[in-house]
Amino acid sequence: MNKRLFVLLVALMSLSLIGIISVQFLWIKQSVEDKEEQFSNTVSEVLNEVSDKIEERETKDYFERYINIKDSVGEPKSSHLRNIFFIDRDINSNEIRFYSHGILEEDYNIASTFFDNGNGSDTITTIKNYTSKRTKTIFKEDYGLDGKEYKLNAVQKLEKIGGLSAIEKAQFEDVFSEYAKKVPIHKRVSNQEIQLLLDRELKNRNLNIEYEYGVYSRGLPTKVKSRKFKFEKDMLYETAIFKDSEGASNFSLLISFPKKKKFLIQSIIKMALLSLLFTLVIVIAYSGAIYQLIRQKQIAEIKSDFINNMTHEFKTPIATINLAVEAIRNPKIIADPEKVDRYLTMIREENKRMHAQVENVLRISKLEKNQLDISKDRVDVHDIIEDAIAHVELIVADRGGYIETHLDASRTEVLASEMHFTNVIVNILDNAIKYSVEAPRIDIYTEVVKNYIVIKVKDQGAGMSKAVVKKVFEKFYREHTGDLHNVKGHGLGLAYVKKIVDDHQGEVYAESEKGKGSTFYIKLPLI
């Protein structure tokens, strides 16, 4: 994949993911705001309903007391305050309709302590009643047999005595409310009544939440309030109570919800958690996809490097073998046994070199599939180190370097495969030799730490950066060496080392600094 296209794809996917996450958080925020607005509207309805019911209950109480006093006295004196007449004549039917609507005042001529203002004194009130009286009479015009005598006969008469009109009733209630203003608030409404009404109205609207309430008079607290009520302006809902005919009132019913935030969050928590869960799944899937894309890109690069390196590794021996074969075919060369033997040895060595490369690749493949048969025996680590040094000492000597041993471990026996573990040490030494720009200078140490033997291989070569140290044991990974063209390989040596050490329940790691060499540690359990 083109690098620019890859970066563009990752950028677009990242922007899309950020957009999805942003939309989710905006949705959650908007849901909380909507729930809060809905909650506020519902609470306002509850307060208005409670206020109306308290006012209705007070008015009803006064009416009942009024009716009881009115019924306890005798026949009242009545007088017409107002009487309206209306006459309508129908020519076709010879009928005359007579309408009458009057207001009767009934005076009971008593003084009563009707209103209790709560301060120990009584208000003297004259009890009067007002009644609406409606009359409808239909007269029929008639003449005698001689056609001269005129008669007016009442055909139908309907009389209806009822209560006051809505306007008159409102005026009556206004009188009551004026008297009630003199009564202390704690005698007009009780804590029990407010709590009962609030509980009922909140329950009817499915608001199962703790609350505190209080009645305030012109901003000052009264005795009517719940035990834990606190005046916190930003957390209060308010409505007027005991309003007069103009809608004004000196009292306010306030309510607060200490656990409102928790209640609102709980109302959307399930949907929010599901939303966050799916967003998390998307993030994980996206991260996995990006990781796989980057990993595949790295593998593609590593694979390309591996093919190039393997091609280079095979190209030289094949060329050498071809040259040796062509030389042997020369009649002059074939007649010289010494030269033929020399070329045959060269062919054999190059063939062995190619075979070793193929074996390395196959060995790693078998290790990954757990198909490599590793038989373990009791072996001496120091013997394995000496054997491994023997494999590379000629190369080191040829480059003018050295390998020094500091084998100080008091216990050296481990359970391991002698052949594979020798290859492990050889691969680490070969790595140290390849990455030494000057003459290789290698020191090997051993020591016992608790129940483990630690092998330390230290070189003074080119060293590695921290990023390279993290990846150096990965299959096919090779550090780019810039102008250092003599470093050959295919990135399998240290991967093989890690696989073998892991199979022996051991541990291998490296420490390095660029330009100051590297140190490889192998830690194995002792018998």
Number of strands: 15
Main beta sheet: strand number and arrangement?
5 strands, mixed
Number of helices: 11
| Overall pLDDT score | 77
Helix content: 40-55%
Q: Which percent band covers the strand fraction?
A: 25-35%
What is the element layout, followed by pairings?
Layout: H1 3-71, E1 77-90, E2 95-116, E3 122-143, E4 150-162, H2 166-180, H3 185-188, H4 191-204, E5 212-217, E6 220-225, E7 236-241, E8 251-256, H5 260-329, H6 331-334, H7 337-368, E9 377-380, H8 381-398, E10 402-407, E11 413-416, H9 418-434, E12 441-449, E13 452-459, H10 466-471, H11 493-503, E14 507-512, E15 518-525
Helix pairs in contact: 1-4, 1-5, 5-7, 7-11, 8-9, 9-11
Structure described in brief:
This protein is an alpha+beta fold and 527 residues long. 49% of the residues lie in helices and 27% in strands.
